[in-house]
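User: Run a structure prediction on this.
Assistant: Running it now.
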Amino acid sequence: MYDIVIKNGLVVDPSQGIKEVMNVAILDGKIADLRRGINSTGARHVIDASGLIVAPGLIDLHVHCCYGIAHIAVNPDLACLAKGSTTVVDAGSTGELNFIGFKKYVIGSAETRIYALINIESQGMIEFSRPNQKWPSLITGRDEMFINVDGTVEEIKRNRNIIIGIKWAHHGIKGVELAREAADRAQCLLMAENHLQPETLKYMKKGDVITHLYHGLKMGQHDGLLDADGNVQPEFFDAVKRGVVLDVGHGAASFKWSVARRGIEQGIKPNTISTDLHSGSYNGPAYDLPTVMSKFLHLGLSLEEVINATTAKPAEVIGKKDVLGTLKIGACGDVTILKLEEGRFPLEDTSGEWEICKQRLRTVKVIKDGRIVF
């Protein structure tokens, strides 16, 4: 007898190359079977997913969810899990001085599965924790950087089960250098924002992540993906060849239709699609992960590509391949059931430009660790 059987849905699991109507069975918090014709007799819950998409639980590689610690953060269960993201990565909201509070009061109590990138700034994103406060310069960084590489490395070592890497954001090239040093010493990945280019990319290694890929901001002469003529800077192609992960990180200021379209046309597709959900983006223009996924369907990525970028690939990035982001037998019993709606859906980028999308993904049901949670 199974705990849950999901019947008649279009299973899309890029980790196994599957896109066909199948049944999924879950028992004791794990995927127990995946095939046609699973007997659902006696199952505690039977879900008819006819006309729906059955995907592994979605993984959002870039959110800010230290809720109650900083104003920038969203409630992970309401803003992420309820919208389909069973697993999220907090992208540097806290640093080595305040991670302990995040771990105890949010990660320890949330239903959402939360991993973290620790900020190279020892106090994390405290500078963003007050409403209406001006953000620091991305070019010069702050006048003073409160960075303790030794303390950061030690905090990672104490929390290997949660902290998967280091985040660099707003501290100039010196900050990138220190983040690289800390990541190397802690033997973990580095996520860096797509600024101060092409200099920042020089510090990125295989498995590291460049986020805010399609931001369209001009913090410097050629900051970001494109040069002044709208061509992808050659350093990005070099980064792809050496295995640097390209992440969307939509947020409130980091996704522009025209930049994404030009980049994709020139061969720079996102490896991972993430929201950068925070207090300034979850009420728009990012909203949630299915909305951001819908924007990339509109830009020409296939359903399989979009789901791969929110399941199998981010699972690989965080070192959880075959455990998360997959419906393989024995994997965590995380499933996101989606509906692909047809119509006319106006969606905006972060510069206020709207486009009419013909398709939209919407979360119907969320299962985490074999429990129906939403």
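The CA atoms of residues 194 and 224 lie 5 Å apart.
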